[in-house]
Amino acid sequence: MSGKTQNGEEECTELLQALIRNACVNDGTVESGGEIRSADVLENFLEGPGLELESYDAAPGRRSLVARIEGSDPTAPTLLLMGHTDVVPANPDHWSRDPFGGDLVDGEVWGRGAIDMLNITSSMAVAFKRLARSGFTPRGTLVYLAVADEESSGVYGAEHLINHERDAVMADYVITESGGIPLPSPNGLKLPVLVGEKGLFGIRIRVGGTAGHGSQPYKTDNALLTAAEVVRRIGEFQPETHIHDIWQRFIESMGYPEEISGPLLSKDGLTDVLEFLPLGMARQFHACTHTTFAPTVIHGGSKINIIPDSVELDVDIRTLPGHDAEMVMAELRLALGDLADAVTFEQVNYDPSSSSPTDTPLWDSLSRVTQQRYPGSETVPFLTVGATDARFFRRADKVAYGFGLFSENLTFEDFGRMFHGDDERIDTRSLGLSTEMWEAVANDLLLSREG
Fold it and tell me: 321-357, pLDDT tens digit by residue?
């Protein structure tokens, strides 16, 4: 490894540790997050010659930071490197180490956000600073965005910025989380690029009943028991398999033998073959090809000796490309059967699936620069089953991908298990690879090529 890569790796490691220790935990309330702490750390890290810095507060403590290296040609393409600074909650009792300690152990940084996505946020910042200090003078403008509130809804982050500070963040091309996990295949290493994501559709189901004394449960109209049956039916529901374009292109590019690719591209055979895959991969592949329904929150009852007369159940639904709200509700009603007419539905949120094309200069740049790190590899399109801030830019007709560049120490299975999971950690070699790649992409896309 060159001295340049080593220095970038060490710098990124220290910055990642600082961001983890800031514990910018977003629980969905406006009072949480506290991203101002990490925005201030990043501002202190970046400030200096060669770039412009500006911060934006959507609410008290909910700060996003924007850095710019202005291009010389206003007609040249612009690139936004976007990483979020908030993280999801962590239960210390389920971790082997302090989830906000940022410990460096055996070449790995431990902590909440190490995978999602402070590793990318840090490596983008290090690359941006290195470019600025080197005198980087691109034709097209390069922007770095450390954004708040990605882990909830983006209301205090990307959505706020696009609605109120559009000129500060809008770019022709956007890269955010979280592809680039090396995938071995029969015909070489594949590097998934997240070109699309599933949609968000939150539903609150209200179940009614009749109040009564808890000492006389016989033949009562107990809303909690009805809600339990609603949960059971949703849990056992088998949604239809859908072989959409992104999924088909991904499987065809992997070069699997026909006995594997055939079932994975079959509406009738895919579910059966999932039983033979590693659990993390099976979950990903299932979610990539099905609308998913996950009961996540339930509230009901008021006192231990009162039969509950109302229960509220929240269901997290993730929709596939081309599926609208009407189609999803039809599936949910199918799952509930006769109970669909006995409950009421309230739409909590709805954000359709989004995607970007692959015949773009940014795709070409990623394909070129990854060859320098993984010769003979191939970038392949993939659908992320979670939501990212890329959707806000796709709505504005901009090309947005999820990518990074990770070492082969991090497997697809590891990544899926640690994403919002316990014992989250990232190896420092991956930090160095990503840092190196961002510099290379900026040079390839903005310095000399037409966009």
Answer: 999 999 999 999 999 999 999 999 999 999 999 999 9
DSSP state for residue 241 in the 8-state scheme:
P
C-beta separation of 95 from 89 below 8 A: no
Q: Which of 90, 117, 97 has the alpha carbon at shortest distance from 16?
A: 117
Q: Does this model's pTM top 0.85?
A: yes
Which of 336, 351, 366 is at the close of a domain? 351
The Cβ of residue 332 has, within 10 Å, a number of other Cβ atoms equal to 22
CATH number of the CATH domain containing 418: 3.40.630.10
Predicted local distance difference test score (pLDDT) of residue 414: 85
Q: Is residue 192 part of a domain?
A: no
Question: Whole-angstrom Cα distance, residue 445 to residue 141?
Answer: 10
The residue-averaged pLDDT of 420-449 equals 93
Residue 191 located in a structural domain: no
Does the residue 380 lie in any domain? Answer: yes
**Residue 239 is encoded by which pair of tokens?**
């949604």
Least confident of 138-142, 217-221, 275-279, 376-380: 275-279
Of 321, 351, 381, which residue sits at a domain end?
351
Q: How far apart are CA 29 and CA 413, in angstroms?
A: 31
Same domain for 218 and 132?
no
193 in a structural domain: no
The H or E element that residue 421 is part of is: none
* Vertex 126 angle, CA 151 and 68, to 5°: 80
Looking from the CA of 96 toward its CB, the CA atoms found within 13 Å total 9
With H, G, I as helix, E, B as strand and everything else as coil, classify residue 226.
helix
- Quick check: 93 pLDDT over 70? yes
Q: In this structure, which amino acid lies at residue 234?
A: I
Tens digits of per-residue pLDDT, 31-83?
Answer: 999 999 999 999 999 999 989 999 999 999 999 999 999 999 999 999 999 99
Same domain, 316 and 238: yes
Gap between the Cα atoms of 214 and 220, Å rounded = 10
**Residues 111, 36 within the same domain:** yes
Sheet holding 425-427, edge to edge: 104-105, 108-110, 425-427
* CATH label of the domain that carries residue 339: 3.30.70.360
Give me the chain's average pLDDT, please: 94
- Helix (H) / strand (E) element for 206: namely strand 199-208
Q: Which domain holds residue 367?
A: 3-186+354-447
SS3 100: coil
> How many structural domains comprise the chain?
2
Contact (Cβ atoms closer than 8 angstroms) between residue 13 and residue 99:
no
Whether 388 and 250 share a structural domain: no
